[in-house]
Amino acid sequence: MADVLLLSAGRRVSLFRGVAKAAEARGLSVATADMNPDMSAACQVSGQSFRLPHVRSDEYLAALEDCCRRNGVRLVIPTIDTELPVLASLRSHFATFGCFLAVSEAPVIDACADKRKTISFFEPYGLRSPMLYDPAHLAYPLIVKPYDGSLSVGISVVRAPEDLTAAHLAEPRNIFCQYLDPAEFEEYTCDAYYDRSGAMRCVVPRLRIEVRGGEVAKGRAVRNNIVAHLKDRIGQIDGAVGCLTIQVMRHRETSEIFLIEVNPRFGGGYPLTARSGARYHEWLIDEYLMGAAIPDYDDWRDGLMMLRYDAEVFVGE
Asked: Mind listing the domains of the chain with CATH numbers?
């Protein structure tokens, strides 16, 4: 039996341990799930884990529902992009047997899954994004990237017309964007928590000092104008639920802010936000299992740095 289920646990040992500690303190339990629990570090360190098929499998819905019903799961926490649209479509069904899927509503998920839609969705809120170019009218330098990409896969910097290849133009998923020079801009990932009413209760900007494989390896929590900028503009998003990771670029001199993308789930650098005092994983449990209202929170620790490293889990000793 388990009150909370962490999906696609994979290597997310830190997130699992945080959720498990919070649950235990409230007299609750946590289990993990993965396509291959035997090869998942987080599943190996959890006391209880389950095998689920791929989220796009025809068997996924029945397997997830059976897992939740049999084990009394009341809160499901997703961790990867491909789960989000599927779970968003299942929210009302799972609610009929008392299980809350901690995922934003379908319109929010749909807007965040396609970078073209992200721009149009957030523009009315007053968030500015880098320009998108028509392939027939490009300005250099520019960024080429898939509209549905993640982890920096498929991104290229094209500095001059001669650097643009036929492959860039032939790939139907590619979009062509204004280039923001890292010499002029700092990159931040901002963890924002939205309660059940769609109100932002907290936002923590994390400076991306070093990135490895698309995930932050070194980062720092920084209190600057990004906090007010986001609270003033997207302090309320109907249908937003739980943690949204909002990637922005901030000009080093003018402090001008550009929205890059939004991932409506916990990100790889979330442990820094949690350690700074903004414990969103606890708030999910408190809000959806304990019936608590989440107040506004701004007392997180400015300047805290995170240096990530590799660790090992040994199986069979």
From this structure: 4-103 (3.40.50.20), 108-126+182-307 (3.30.470.20), 132-178 (no CATH)
